[in-house]
Amino acid sequence: MWTTKTFLTKTKRGNILKIVREHYLRDDLLCGSAACNICPHKDDEFVLASNPESICALFEYPHYLVLDTNVVLHQMDVLEEDALTNVIILQTVLEEVKHQNTAIFQRLLEIIGNKKRKFYSFVNEHHKDTYIERGPGEKPNDRNDRAIRKAASWYASHLSANNVGGQFPKIVLLTDDEGNRKIAQEEGIVCCSVKDYIENVNGFVGLIDKLSKNVIPESCSKDALYPAHLTPTQIHSGIRNGKLFQGTFHASRDNFLEGTVSVNGYEKPILLQGHIGINRAVDGDMVAVEIFPEEEWRKPSDIVLEDKADDPGDLLEEEAVLLNTAKPADNNKDEITPTGKVVGIIRRKWRQYCGILMPSKFPGATRHLFTPAEKRIPRVRIETRQSDILAAQRILVALDSWPRNSRYPLGHFVRALGPIGDKDAENEVILLEHDVPHARFSEAVLACLPPNDWTIPEEEIKKRVDLRSICICSVDPPGCTDIDDALHARPIEGTTADGLVKYEVGVHIADVTYFVRPNTALDKEAAARSTTVYLVDKRIDMVPDLLSSNLCSLRGGEERLAFSCVWEIDENANVLSTKFHKSVIKSAAAMTYEEAQIAIDDSARQDQIASSLRVLNALAKKLKRKRLDNGALLLASPEIRFQVDSETHDPIEVQAKKIVDTNSMVEEFMLLANVSVAEKLAAEYPQCALLRRHPAPPPANFTTFLKAAMQQGFEIDVSTNKSFSASLDKAQIPDRPFFNTLLRIMATRCMQQAVYFSSGTKMQDEFYHYGLACPIYTHFTSPIRRYADVIVHRLLAACIGEDVTHASLLDTKQADSICDNLNYRHRQAQYAGRASVALNTHILFKNRVEIEAAVVLSVKRNALQVLIPKYGLEGPLYLPSDKFTYNEEEHFQICNGVVLKTFDELTVRLSLDSTNLQHRKLVFQLVEPHIPGFSYVPEQAMDVDAKTEEKKEEKVEAKKRKEARDTKVKKKAKK
């Protein structure tokens, strides 16, 4: 049988269109219970047990659970535990969950797919006895609640039919909706709240800790600390009439009482200050902000501030002192930022957070504070009865709600990750905190791989350009196994019209797309991961190891499939022609940067590899000169390399990375290949080419940097990237060779992030890459570790007729969505890498103290940000306000006549502070210049001082003894 639904809709032309939809109902849908004597089940169709054992003291008889939608949405951490079995998931609930939260929906499907859990999906919307129509004026939520009650009631009567003696499972409806429970009870349905049910479960320790905390309605908060949030209707109205603005909240890493929101119509982000200004927004939330009148605008705080170690209770401290909210002087107007406050939450972006438990000081307490590893996330109140055990563990906690009367948000314990300080647990924290997908590749993904002994089929070789006879080699960092690229150069007979020697130069990139075909499980996984993530002691691959380190890696002496970009170039590095083709190569050697440099420098070597490298190196220098003359910036960042113990994988030494000419050689040809491919794609696919742009930084980004350079006597012109590059080249201090590198490190921090984008979403002038000074750019050269390059390979293959064009490639909307994910994953991978460096630095300095040369990167109101060039490490050197005076206008600190400003050279003492287990940190103490009562005095110096004092005292004593003897002699003489 079926029912029909009729809709009337108005078309764009004003016509009334009648739509009739048929909804089929069946009477042969199975209930899934082994206790049923009515439904014609087969043995493998029984999901629910015939006599389920009750684990809840409230219902000691056998029963099945029926869940409503909110239980699934908010209590998934409870449902994922093995405690609850024999659960009925209705189609109504499945569809609502899918609509509201796809992540929760996927987790629910995994539980349903696990046969041990006995979760049965019942299609109540197509069963003739459980389907209901929506009543006139009935809200969708009310109709769905009624459908759930109808299904629960039907199950109860269905199971009782034909079961003599009352030996059949009962139905218990779990819902946290008090109104729904009341109606259900009136209809004779047994029901219960999740909290009441779980609190009476026996034999599952810790299950109650995973209960999500109920949200307290805004209007019902007693003793409110925070202003109430506006309703969605009020927010929508405010944004529409221009009184409110929406954007993503970004919390400050240095000051928990500050954050920003970028909104349309304002060049600078909107500054939010204080608990009231932030109003319970959490980093990543989409918020509605009200912007203050211009006379109330302020500058961001220059205080490095962390939350107090102790729990202040539900109090908000006086904030003006902590924030330095005084308005800047008139001559500092360029530092003023639009200021506002959060008035509503549009969409929460809460996730599960890693951290440690701060047990309550009260014995037997169940409420405790959780400190997240991510400094931008506030502490969380959770309830647990396992605090003694969890205090020594890294744990995972989910946020549930943030009532107006609570200083901190409320959450619940999810699971323990391992002991604090354990290397595996700490790495797990890094990956989880930065949302790095790192689960093992699924069986579906592995099924897409070729066999381990795969070799290139002859028919594939025939389709490609055979370059196996050419001397091609790769140059990479030591220990690299995912070799994406290889190079070759050889002279071409004849000369140009100007009599210049010509060369054929090729960049050969691993042909990953041969193995990763569109819309396969492997492709979807690679797209989701988007990038390989490099930690100090491990690598999280984008594609399985068989591809990344074997079949796609261009290893020396092995035949590989490649995508080649080949140029004809003259000796002055002018590109005469470019061609692209799929190829087969056999790399003659896989070399490290140093090995390649030695081959170039060794004049005794005249073999093909050395000759090819010399040509490449000479051309690369000319290409680089041209880029720099064109305005490209040579920026720098403090990069370090750890020496790791082969057995424990713990760091044993750290040093700044060494850069040799061959680093630049490889970089230049990768840049040239990327530009060449970008030009080709944009010409062929102007609406859907995947490109990479680098926006010019706004002038405000340079304010502090320019002041610091001026203090050293250099006027940096940042009006264009060309003038900026020329200014940086000239800013040299002969007796301080590191100064120019330091200047470039600071310049890097003024830049904006480079991002992927689809060409159809931007105007041509927005394609420009500021740092590289090129009008168009993309990523083509690393498809093993970047999904962006995979897309670019597919587009390029379609351009040259080497592969078919897929509909998804030409979909601008889908391309834009892919770019958003690429940018997010790329950024998170960078942060994860830095966090891994910090972790290993802490391990290295665990029982180590060193005194090293340092330089000042920036001056804050209460700290200096210093860099240790030897290690590439940086951190704050805190300055007490009672000793130091801060010059806000010129950004320097002064104490006892000693002035400390940006770029100053210092000597500092490095040690590790482990008192805060959550945020272990390197402590920087000033040694030189010496400031009495503040600077650290090394023990050796103390020993020297002590010996000097002893010698002085000995001299004084000797002098006294001598004077005493002389006096005696004189007295005797007189006598």
From TrEMBL:
Domain of life: Eukaryota
Compositional bias of kind Basic residues: 958-975
Ranges where the RNB domain occurs: 464-802
SMART domains the record matches: PINc, RNB
Every PIN domain range: 63-182
Region (Disordered): 944-975
Pfam family, one: RNB
Compartments it resides in: Nucleus
Biased composition (Basic and acidic residues): 944-957
Keywords noted in UniProt: Exonuclease, Hydrolase, Nuclease, Nucleus, RNA-binding, rRNA processing
Family the entry assigns: Belongs to the RNR ribonuclease family.
Protein name in UniProt: Exosome complex exonuclease RRP44
Organism field: Loxostege sticticalis
